[in-house]
Design goal:
This protein is of the alpha/beta class and about 250 residues long. About 40% of the residues lie in helices and about 25% in strands. Strand 6 and strand 7 form a beta hairpin. It comes from Bradyrhizobium diversitatis.
C-alpha cells in the first residue's frame, strides 16, 4: 500500500489538472497514490485524468454520481485512500518537487497528527504574486480558531495519530477538519519552507473574502458551538490575519 494518499477534488479544470498531476509525479518521494474525485465536470477534466491514470496507475479517477461540492468529493477520495498519511492538493494548485519528502520527514520527527508548510501564491499564468506566506511553528485548537495558517495544499494528516478523518459538508470543510483533529488534544506543526504554489483564480470556490468570512463565522457558531463573545473575539483575529495574508508585497 502507498504511504501517502493525496486527496484532490476536481471540477472543470481541463486547462490546469494535468499540471497539478505533473507536480505530484515530479515529487522526489514516489510512494504515493493520487485520488482525484471529479465532481461531475462538464469539460475534459475526467478524460485527462483517466488518460494519465492509464500510464501511471498511481493516479486514480473517482467519478462522483452527482455534483456535491468539494467536501463530498474529498470524502469520496478519503474513503478510497490506502495510505497512512493524507495530503491535500486542490486541482489547480501545485507542489514543488521536494514537498512530500521534506514534510514527511518533518511530520515523523514531530510525531505530528497534522502538519503544514509555507507557500507562495501564483496567478493563472503561473506568475508568482506577493510574498512568501510563512507559517507559525505550532498551533493548538484555540490558536487555530484565530488563524488562517493551514492552507489546504500544504496540509498532511497522519491517520495513525490523528484518529478518524471525516469532512463536514460546510464551506471551509478543510478548516473544519483541522479543528476536529486539534480539538482531540493534538498540536499542528508548521514547516516554514516554501514547498507549494496556491493558485488564485477568480472562479475558485474560496476566492471571495466576504463569503469566506461568512463561512468562518458559521463554523464558529454552528459547528464549534462557540459563544457569541468567543466567536467575535476569534473572528476579529481571524479577519486581521486573513487581510494580512491577502496583501501582496
Amino acid at each position: 500500500m502507498p504511504l501517502v494518499s493525496i486527496i484532490t477534488p476536481s471540477w472543470n479544470v481541463e486547462g490546469l489538472i494535468e499540471e497539478t498531476i505533473r507536480s505530484v509525479q515530479s515529487q522526489s518521494f514516489s510512494d504515493w497514490e493520487l485520488l482525484i474525485a471529479d465532481d461531475c465536470s462538464t469539460d475534459r477534466t475526467p478524460q485527462i485524468i483517466a488518460d494519465i491514470g492509464e500510464r501511471d496507475p498511481r493516479v486514480k479517477l473517482i467519478r462522483q454520481a452527482k455534483n456535491g461540492g468539494p467536501a463530498l468529493a474529498r470524502q469520496a477520495a478519503i474513503d478510497r485512500a490506502q495510505g497512512r498519511y493524507l495530503a491535500f492538493l486542490d486541482s489547480d494548485d501545485l507542489w514543488l518537487p521536494g514537498k512530500l519528502e521534506r514534510q514527511l520527514a518533518f511530520a515523523k520527527a514531530k510525531q505530528a497528527a497534522l502538519s503544514y508548510t509555507a507557500f507562495r501564491r501564483i496567478n493563472e499564468t503561473n506568475t508568482v504574486t506577493g510574498r512568501l506566506i510563512e507559517v507559525p511553528a505550532a498551533l493548538s485548537y484555540g490558536q487555530l480558531l484565530k488563524n488562517t495558517a493551514i492552507a489546504t495544499l500544504t496540509a498532511m494528516v497522519d491517520r495513525e495519530i490523528a484518529g478518524p478523518i471525516a469532512m463536514k459538508n460546510e464551506g471551509y470543510d478543510d478548516f473544519c477538519l483541522w479543528l476536529s483533529i486539534l480539538k482531540r488534544g493534538h498540536t499542528a506543526y508548521g514547516l516554514n519552507e516554501d514547498l507549494a504554489r496556491y493558485r488564485v483564480r477568480g472562479s475558485s470556490v474560496s476566492s471571495r473574502p466576504v463569503r469566506s468570512a461568512k463561512w468562518v463565522w458559521q463554523i464558529y457558531r454552528n459547528v464549534e458551538h462557540l459563544s457569541l463573545a468567543r466567536s467575535a473575539w476569534c473572528f476579529g483575529h481571524w479577519g486581521a490575519r486573513a487581510w494580512l495574508k491577502r496583501r501582496e508585497f
